[in-house]
Amino acid sequence: MNTVATSSMSRSELGFRKGRASTRTLLIFGVAAGLLYVAADVLAGLLLDGYSFRDQHISETGALGTSTRTFVTVLMAIHGLLVGAFGTGVRRASGGSRTLRWVGNLLISVAVVTVLGVIFAPMSMRGSAPSLNGTMHVVYISISSLMILVSIGLSAIALKGGFRVYAWTSLIVMFAFGAWAGTFAGDIEAGNPTPWAGAIERASVYTYLVWLIVFAFSLMKREKLTPGEARLGGREGADVTSSTAES
C-alpha cells in the first residue's frame, strides 16, 4: 500500500513540476520579447541609411518603402508572438488571481494587435501625403498602447511590495513620454525636423519593455520558479521526501 501511495505521489509531483517548468518557459518569453524588440530597434536603425535614433520614431524603420521594412516586420511579428506566449504564462501563473488573468488576457490581445499592425498597418514614410495606411498605423499604436498601460496598472494592483511602486511609476513614465512623442506626428507627416522625437518615444517604449522583463521575473519569484531553483532539491522536494519517509 505504501509503495502504491509513494508511486502515486511521485507521479503527481512529477506532473506538478512539469507544469511549473512549462509555465517558467512561457514567463521567460516575456524577457525574450523585451530583448528582441531592443535588438530589432538597434539593428534596424543601424541598417537604415541616415536614420537618427535621437530624432526619429521607431516605426520609421519599418515604414512603407524603407529598405528595412521586411527585416523589422519579421522581428516585430516574432516579438508579438513572444508577448502572446508570455500572456499565456501570466494566466497560468495567476494562482487564482482574477487581476493577473486579465493582465494575461490583455497581453495576448496586445500580441494579436502587434502582429496584425506590423504586417497590415505600417506607417508611411516621413513627408508622405496622408493615407489610409498612416491612419491605420495611428489606430494600431493607440489601441496597443492603451492595452499596455492598463496591463501595467493591473499588474500593480495584483502584486504588492516594491513591484507595485515600480509598476505605477512605469505607467506614469510610459504615458507621459508617449503623449509627448505623439505631439511630433504632424511634423513627421509634413517631413519637418523632429529633434529628440526618437529619444522621447524610446523613453516610453523602453519603459514598457523593461516592465515586461521585471514583471516576468517577479512572477517567477512569486511562483518560486526562479532559474536558480534546484530541480529537485528545493524546500518542496525536501517536504515530499519527508512525507514519503513518514508513510
Helix content: over 70%
Q: Specify the biggest β-sheet.
A: none
For the record, the count of structural domains works out to 1
How large a portion of the residues is in β-strands, by DSSP E? under 5%
What sequence of helices (H) and strands (E) makes up the elements?
A: HHHHHHHH
Radius of gyration: 22 Å
Rough shape?
elongated
N-to-C CA distance:
10 Å
Describe this protein's structure.
By secondary structure, the chain is mainly alpha-helical. The chain has one domain. It contains eight helices and no strands. The protein has helices at residues 2-47, 69-92, 98-120, 132-158, 162-182, 185-190, 197-222, 235-246. α3 (98-120) packs antiparallel against α4, α4 runs antiparallel to α5 and α5 runs antiparallel to α7. The radius of gyration is 22 Å and the shape is elongated. Mean pLDDT is 87; it is low at 225-247.
Keywords:
mainly alpha; 8 helices; 247 residues; elongated; disordered C terminus
Please specify the SSE layout and strand pairing:
Blueprint (H helix, E strand, L loop, with lengths): L1 H46 L21 H24 L5 H23 L11 H27 L3 H21 L2 H6 L6 H26 L12 H12 L1
Helix pairs in contact: 1-2, 1-7, 2-3, 3-4, 4-5, 5-7
Give a quick summary of the entry.
The protein is built from eight helices and no strands. It is mainly α.
